[in-house]
Amino acid sequence: MTHTPTIAVDAMGGDHGPSVVVSGAVSAARRFGVPIILFGDQGAVDAALQSIDTTGVNVTVVGTTETIDMGDQPAQAVRRKPDSSLVRAIRAVKDGEAAAMVSAGNSGAVMAGALMSLGRIKGIDRPAIAANIPSKTGMTLVLDLGAVTDPKPAHMVQFAIMGQTYARYVMNVPNPTVGLLSNGEEPSKGNQLTVAVHALLRETPNISFYGNVEGKDIALGTTDVVVTDGFTGNVALKVAEGTASYFVDSLREELTRTLIRKLAAAVLRPAFRAMARRMDYAEVGGAPLLGVDGTAIVSHGRSNERAIENAIGVAIKSSEQNLASRIAEHIAQVPEEVASATV
Fold first, then answer.
1. Is 181 helix (H, G, I), strand (E, B) or coil?
2. Mean pLDDT of 69-90
3. Contact yes or no for 161/330 (Cβ under 8 A)
4. Do the beta carbons of residue 104 and residue 10 sit within 8 Å?
5. What letter would DSSP give residue 126?
6. Is the pLDDT score of 301 beyond 90?
7. Closest by alpha carbon to 234, among 148, 135, 136?
8. d(CA 166, CA 265)
9. By the 8 A CB rule, do 164 and 176 touch?
10. What's the mean pLDDT in 291-307?
């Protein structure tokens, strides 16, 4: 009999407040058939639940008295607000009350709280935020997206192993290829860090290393996984989000400019809607925080109900695949000279 994982949700995280998070969580409970624990202000969460049909779903509320805001300093907030919805959701994973947690709140606080409570996977020095970016071939997993802005070469080798493991077991890619983001395809291209990482990845066993890839290759799907530092990765993600939003909005504007275009758009509307869904961040849902000894999913601060629902789907699949143990197994195979490399 398959065990149904319970998912802990930070109901107070996100730009739109608990009403959106709660609605998305209830939809996920119904769609995936999983129990959900909502952590947050009792009155606010109860009020959100009153306007939603919860018939037939397993959703419970755990009241908390504190909230970590987007502007809070992550580590300080985690220490000073132990009864915050974010910290309590992480603690539920630590205590075995939930298989995974999801938050659209302060991503730095999610990382800090996960490190303090769950700890790192053995062999992992720094965690990484990974996310799927829509590409020509489906999805490209990119990491790191902001957890470590100034990594050492060994950290990026760890990112590659974690990304490849996630792609294989959660994204169902049989033999994921890994590319290193650079400003050119040649091994000599890039800054000092990139050149050093390229040399290490060539020497690391059990990594299907493609070589250097450029920014365009993320959208082209040249490799299944793209590895970079957290600063560059975060910039690349924001550029991709802005470009997708601009493209969809511009297309909508042009298609409604004249009567003839409006008539043509009416015929092609299903195709345009399908394309918009492929480019919509909400369809991805959440980004796993890889490297911590448990499952924590970070959602975009502006997540809507659909994004929260899909983030919970990512949490379910990640927990079911026992990802932390699989990452530990692959990290243990890295040679010592690679694991300790510095620039």
1. strand
2. 93
3. yes
4. yes
5. S
6. no
7. 148
8. 39
9. yes
10. 89
The residues near 266 (Cβ < 8 Å, ≥ 6 apart) are: none
DSSP H helices, the chain, are 18-32, 42-50, 74-80, 85-94, 107-117, 153-169, 192-203, 216-220, 230-255, 259-278, 281-284, 305-320, 323-331, 336-339
Asked if residues 200 and 166 have their Cβ atoms less than 8 Å apart, the reply is no
Q: How many CB atoms lie within 10 A of CB 260?
A: 8
Gap between the Cα atoms of 3 and 14, Å rounded? 29
Q: In this structure, are residues 99 and 6 in contact, taking their beta carbons and an 8 Å threshold?
A: yes
Q: Which residue in the block uniquely carries the two structure tokens 């119904």?
A: 30
- Residue 2 reports pLDDT greater than 50: no
Burial class (CB in 10 A: 0-12, 13-18, 19+), 311: buried
Q: Identify the three-state secondary structure at position 132.
A: strand
Report the C-alpha gap between 277 and 215 in whole angstroms: 22
What whole-number distance in Å separates Cα of residue 192 and Cα of residue 169? 32
Pair of tokens at residue 32: 């995936």
- Per-residue pLDDT, 333: 81
Core vs surface per residue 274-288: b (16+ CB within 10 A) or e: eeeeebbbbebbbbb
Classify strands 100-103 and 208-213 as parallel, antiparallel or unpaired.
unpaired
Q: How far apart are CA 160 and CA 140, in angstroms?
A: 13
User: How far, in whole angstroms, is CA 230 from its chain's centroid?
Assistant: 13
Q: At what angle do helices 42-50 and 18-32 cross, to 10 degrees?
A: 60
Supply φ then ψ for residue 221, to 5 degrees: 70, 35
Tokens of 18: 């608990």
The model's pTM:
0.84
Residue-wise pLDDT for 82-136, tens only, equals 999 999 999 999 999 999 999 998 988 999 999 999 999 988 999 999 988 888 8
Residue identified by tokens 């919509």 is: 280
Amino acid 282 reads A
**Strand order from edge to edge, sheet including 177-181:** 59-63, 36-40, 7-10, 100-103, 295-299, 286-290, 128-135, 138-143, 225-227, 177-181, 208-213
